[in-house]
Amino acid sequence: MFKKYLTKAVTVVVKKYTKLVTYLENKWADKHASSFHSYKLFKNGVHSTLVDLGDLSQLWMDITCRSQSILEILPTLSRHQVYVLRQVPKDLMKILPVMLLAPLPGTILILPIFFAFPRIFLSRAFWTPEQCKSIDTKCLKDRFDYRTQSLLKSKLLTIIYSSSCSMNYSQPILKSLRNLANALSQASILEPISAEQICDLIPAFKGPLSLEQLDTSHLAALCRLHGLSIYSYIWIMNTLLWNDLFKGKSILKTSRILVLKKHAYFLYAEDQCIQKDKLFNDHSLSIIQSSELKQVSKGSKKGRQNKKASLSVVIIFRRITINR
Q1: Which of 122, 224, 254, 307 sits CB 3.0–4.6 Å from 249 for a disulfide?
Q2: What are the alphabetically sorted keywords of the record (predicted)?
Q3: Please, where are the H alpha helices in the chain?
Q4: Hey, how many other C-beta atoms are within 10 angstroms of the C-beta on 178?
Q5: Res 21 pLDDT > 80
């Protein structure tokens, strides 16, 4: 009897509180439209983040309870599950200060500080559509930084030409390196690279171009090119799920190799989801590749030359890092 009365009392209190909040929000929206807009964005962002956090917790529990490894489970997940597993841990690391301050009284007074630097303090759930477009554009420009492209091109060509004269690699690997040099030349004149050509490059990435063989500066440049941060992946449970990737790695390289391999597996899983959902067919993908090459071809001749190596690395790394 007491439990029933308590439940009814709590329900009544919650309903009255909800009505009060709704009344205050309506009054606030009429008198202070600008500050109410920030409050609304913050409220919706917190709600969206909490929903994603619940999905992530459930997904972690499901994965840890299964006998399979994360590498076997990932290709079987849905697009939303892959997104949650990939993006939410990074978002939580970014917005942790905001989430800790949210329950405290007076938080609304410091919200303008967070909204003034959305890329630093807030995740995508808190951004306006205009901010999403602006920040995405800036992030893409940062990824295609000239210094990163030059370093990657230099490193890649050095490995190709030095390895081609070495007797330490088998003939299939040497042939694959020659094919890679041809593929880079083909990309430099804006010719699309076929799937068959990319498959022929796989042996090179089992030899001198494997992540374990690359030096630290090369790995760091690859991380910058793909917009990856080591610190965003320092999440205990998420790291434990990927412990299979730690085996046989140098201590100095482990973090970057782990980040790049996780990124590659996520890309592979997303490609599998696109294929399962039939969002694109082979003809559509070929059109997209041609469109990407046309976008790169726009602008000055110097700008095109600066982007060629980066385009090649993106295509090659995305398609053959996962040897399936």
Answers
A1: 254
A2: Membrane, Transmembrane, Transmembrane helix
A3: 2-31, 33-65, 70-73, 79-101, 111-116, 118-121, 129-143, 146-164, 171-188, 195-199, 216-225, 236-240, 251-277, 282-297, 301-320
A4: 13
A5: no
